[in-house]
Structure formats: structure tokens, C-alpha cells
Amino acid sequence: MNKQQLNDLAVFGGNKAFKEPLHVGRPNIGDRNSLNERFNRILDSRWLTNNGPMVREFERKIEEYIGVKHCIAMCNGTVALEIAIRATGLTGEVIVPSCTFIATAHSLQWQEITPVFCDINPGNYTIDPGKVERLITPRTSGIIGVHLWGRPCDTTSLESIARQHDLKLLFDAAHAFGCGHKNKMIGQFGNAEVFSFHATKLVNSLEGGAVVTNDDELAGKMRLMKNFGFSGEDNVTYIGTNGKMSEVSAAVGISSLEKIDYFIETNRSNFDHYKKHLDDIAGIDLLAYSEMDSCTYPYLTILIDKDRTKLTRDEILSILKEENILARRYFYPGCHKMEPYRSFFPNADLLLENTNYFMERVICLPTGTAVSLDDIENVCDILRFIAGNARSIKDQLDSKPCVA
Ligand code: T4K
């Protein structure tokens, strides 16, 4: 890092710390040789989609990895959620956290099911089971927990509430492929769990997703639903959609899955490096992962306490952006503050105190195999410089507002 004085910051005219943008979600890339070999096999076979051999192999490998009976691969995580919701028979109202990516809520509302937003537990940032029960009404048909940023929900409490109130329980596990909880892999909880294999995820298939379940009947329904409801060449038995994963996506997914240990190890080492270099910066707190769970460290999340940093989260984000550090405030401002939910539930804020607290403070920093330890040190040094010079930066920003 080469920042000695305020004017060295790019926001005040200095050189950018990174010549090229440092993204949050740079994809992990699987082994190219095995990938090219798989692409050739696909082209030679002229089987490009619709439950081809690559998709079946990807599904089998996921079933083995997670230890579940069924994996149904799909074109993306959002469609996988929509299909899981429909196949499980959810209707009316479903309780979900607001502190999640908008796809969790949209996959319900898309089917005219009302997402009822629940606050998160400040201990692990996932849906607070203690608050779920208060939201149950006669119209409630289920709960969707989200293993946010790869942190497992309190599955035991949620399973108990679901059993007691005869509700279905799904998990949006988009961030949690490869994570373990209570000596089981994520994917083994609730009626079904949904993964995303989007480019930015630990394991990716370009675009892709999957539902995993131990329920034979549910799995059968989802297989039909993802292929227009066809149960034979010209026999449609369900309303369905096109949720199929292509062979190319499955090939990328398999090659990515083969490298998962390396991806996890890199994320862990990145996390440790951030921890070491951020540890003593006042007002910047790195969110820990629980030692009780086995983690993949997919998101590197910090909270900014502006009372201590003297700069707001958004001011710090703007300064980082000028340095070419494209950090993100995932998942600001919370689903309840986005349309159509903001209009549906204008008073949602009153019940979402912890969600609002986190959404105002969170920053996700770059991690993954495209980020080097030097990059991380550079990011941390800049954060340290910002925190150490916050008052003068604030004065200079106020006199010359930054445009980022
Ligand atoms: N549930 C949850 C809790 C989720 O987080 C998500 C998706 C879903 C469900 C739905 O799963 P999918 O239907 O997506 O499978 C991204 C992703 O689009 C989304 O998959 C993800 N969660 C969400 C957290 O992040 P954006 O709008 O931030 O993505 P984008 O394209 O701006 O990419 C993020 C960063 O990654 C950028 O800095 C650029 C970089 N990037 C991205 C791509 C696609 C690359 O360097 N290379 C790439 O190829 O939403």
C-alpha cells in the first residue's frame, strides 16, 4: 500500500490501489483439462440438454457429497427455489428472513405466495426461530430458512416449530454448498434444501442450481416440474416449467466440484489473513464463523460501526470503490425495503430491528481463488489507513464530496 497522506487516496486524486477492479464474486475455476475433455464429450455425443449424462453424473456426485437420496439439478437457484416451493405445496404465507438476496422472497411472490419477513438472530444472522412463531397465522404454510453467507440456520429449533405447527420447512442453501452443521452436511435438513451454482458461488456451473431431498415423492414431482410436467414423450401430468440444466453447465459443475477442497482451503486461508490484518482496526468487525460448524468461508463480511470509524459504511464503500476495490453491501437494504414488499408492508421495519442494524453496517469484501494474500493485505491496509485518518478524511469529503 502506498498511502502516506490523504491525497494519496484515489478519492482525493491519488493513484488507485488496484489497476484492475478487485471484484467480490470472481468465479472459482475448475480444472481446465478435465473441463475441455468433458466439453468434447458433450459435443461428440450431441446430447446438449434434457437430463443428459453430464447432468446425471453431476446429480449423482452431489448426492454422494451431501449424503442425500435425491439431487435434482436445475438451470439456476431461483427456479430451483420456485420449483421446491411449488412441489412442497406451499401456499398463502411463508415465513422468510428479510436479510437475504431478493430471490428468496421473489420465488414466493412470483407464485402469489406472500413472504412474511422475520427478523434475524444477531448471533448468526439467520432467521430467529424465537420470532418465527409469532408470525404464524392460519394462512402460514411453511418456513424458508436461509443459511446466510454460509452460516447454518438454527435447524433444530426450526424443525421443531415446523413439526409443532404442521408447516413445511425449506432451506435456501444458495450460499452453503459444502458446509456442515451438527455433524451433517447442509442439504440434509428440512423437507428440501436449495443450492445455487451461479458463477459467484463456491462451486459453480456458470448458471445453475439444485434441490436436494430425501423425500422420494417430492423428488419425483420436482423432476416432472422442471421438464414442463412431462412424464413420457407426450404425457403431461403436472403443470411444469423449463428448469433444466444444460450439459455444459453440468460439465462445469463437475469440474468445479472436483476442486472444492482447494476452493474451501483458499477461502479459509483468505479469511484467516483478513482476520489477522483487520483484527485491531477500531470500528471494523469481521464476522466470525462458528467453530461448531464446518465452514467454506464463502463471504468475507465486515460490519462498520460509524460511531467508532467516524465514517459511514457508504462513505467507506465509496472510498474503496475509488481504489478499485468493488466491495458490496450484500443484501442492503433488506427485502422488506424493496418493491413490491416495501409497498405491501410499509411498517415491516418495526419487527426487523436486527435486520436493519446489519443492513446499515455490512460490507462484503473480495475473497475466493482470484484474490491473493497480497491483495487482502492491500485491502486491509487501506481500511486501516481510512480508519486511522477518518476525521480528516471526513472533513475533506465534506468539503469536496466524492462522486462515486
Ligand atoms: N438465494 C440466495 C440467498 C442467493 O444469494 C441467490 C443468489 C439465490 C437464492 C438465487 O440463486 P441464482 O438464481 O442466482 O442461482 C449475485 C448473483 O447473481 C446471485 O447468484 C447471488 N445469489 C447474489 C448474492 O449475487 P449480483 O447482482 O451481485 O451479481 P453480479 O453479476 O453483479 O456479480 C457479483 C460480482 O461478481 C461482481 O463484482 C462481478 C463478479 N463477477 C460476476 C460474474 C457473474 C465476475 O467476476 N464474473 C462473473 O462471471 O448477484
Q: Overview of this structure, please?
A:
With 404 residues, the chain is α/β, with parallel strands linked by helices. Helices cover 38% and strands 15% of the residues. The protein is built from 15 helices and 16 strands. It has helices spanning 32-45, 53-66, 77-88, 102-109, 129-132, 155-164, 216-225, 247-257, 260-278, 306-309, 313-322, 341-344, 353-361, 373-388, 390-399; strands spanning 22-23, 70-74, 93-97, 114-118, 140-146, 168-172, 180-181, 184-185, 192-196, 209-213, 230-232, 235-236, 284-286, 300-304, 325-326, 362-365. The strands form 5 sheets. Strands 2-10-9-6-5-3-4 form a 7-stranded mixed beta sheet, sandwiched between helices. It has a 3-stranded antiparallel beta sheet with strand order 13-14-16. Helix 6 links the parallel strand 5 (140-146) and strand 6. Helix 1 (32-45) packs antiparallel against helix 8 and helix 2 runs parallel beside helix 8 (247-257). It binds ligand T4K. Ligand T4K binds next to helix 3 and helix 4.
